[in-house]
Specification:
This protein is α/β, with parallel strands linked by helices. The protein has two domains: 201 residues, P-loop containing nucleotide triphosphate hydrolases (Rossmann fold); 69 residues, no CATH class. Helix content is 33%, strand content 23%. Helix 6 links the parallel strand 7 and strand 8. Helix 4 packs antiparallel against helix 5. The chain is globular and about 50 Å long.
Length: 284
């Protein structure tokens, strides 16, 4: 099946702004623990934005705010604002979809039914007629290379194939905002590379605003139009820069002086912001 023609980025235009975000949680011994400290970021066009930092620095907490995930018993954010298209966001947003490291496919449903699951929900059932969503699911399964697995259950798939199902379930909604929380972190190196190339291809067809959390420097440089580096907890923005090299980025580019300079810049910023704390990874 031929892939649909790439969508125009203008059709998915979106504005997401984080204004002076502070997040604090009650500390076990009393008082509060500050996890995020006055982070301000803005995203105003489709692109793959990599959010990088040491383990436990608050990357996922920021991502969850963008996705409307609000932990019970805590105000989120403690102060500051999340704005989507200029409107303050206090909860789940219809245009924002998340993909997690744990792909959470329903074991009792087939691959086709898992990808189609959002259309069981009232919001999407009203938005998209059955004939259209069935075609979308079939097209998306073709795009992720799982057409021949449509009738199988998740237990019959590999980890990489299950992550393809999760990615297809998110993109079948054609979201304007796609939030990815270390989605390839549990995969082996070869499968992770395959998934990175798949994401690049899917983004080319369905451009949207992607915010992708990772602690892998190589992954950030391989995928990102923009790399945002956070310090250790409490998270602050340590660096924020763009990469103009076209994707997919060749192995030669990844070994180039430019790529090495980017990697050294990231590692230097992390070491300056959080000497001796946290962990990052450089894959080879």
């Amino acid at each position: 099946m031929n892939a649909p023609a790439p969508a125009s980025p203008a059709t998915n235009s979106v504005s997401v702004v984080l204004q002076d975000i502070v997040q604090e949680y009650p500390a076990p011994a009393g008082g509060v623990t500050r996890v995020i400290d006055r982070v301000s970021l803005s995203f105003d066009q489709p692109g793959i934005n990599m959010l990088l930092g040491p383990s436990g620095c608050g990357k996922s907490t920021l991502l969850h705010m963008l996705g409307g995930v609000r932990p019970m018993g805590s105000a989120t954010p403690s102060s500051g604002r999340v704005l989507i298209d200029g409107v303050e966001c206090h909860g789940a947003h219809d245009d924002s979809v998340m993909v997690f490291q744990r792909y959470a496919n329903r074991p009792d449903l087939s691959v086709f039914e898992n990808v189609a699951f959002p259309f069981r929900l009232q919001l999407w059932r009203k938005r998209v007629p059955e004939g259209e969503w069935r075609k979308r699911v079939a097209d998306m399964l073709a795009a992720v290379g799982l057409s021949d697995k449509a009738a199988l259950r998740p237990a019959q798939l590999s980890g990489g194939q299950n992550q393809r199902v999760a990615l297809a379930r998110a993109l079948v909604l054609r979201p304007r905002i796609l939030l990815m929380d270390e989605p390839f972190g549990a995969l082996d190196a070869q499968t992770r590379e395959e998934m990175q190339l798949l994401l690049i291809e899917l983004y080319r067809t369905w451009p949207c605003l992607v915010v992708f959390v990772t602690h892998d420097v190589t992954e950030a440089l391989t995928l990102g139009d923009r790399v945002i580096v956070l310090s250790t907890q409490p998270a602050r923005v340590a660096d924020d820069f763009a990469i103009s090299e076209a994707r997919p980025r060749s192995a030669a580019w990844q070994r180039s002086p430019q790529a090495q300079a980017f990697a050294e810049r990231v590692l230097s910023q992390l070491h300056q912001a959080s000497p001796g704390k946290g962990q990052v990874r450089v894959t080879v």
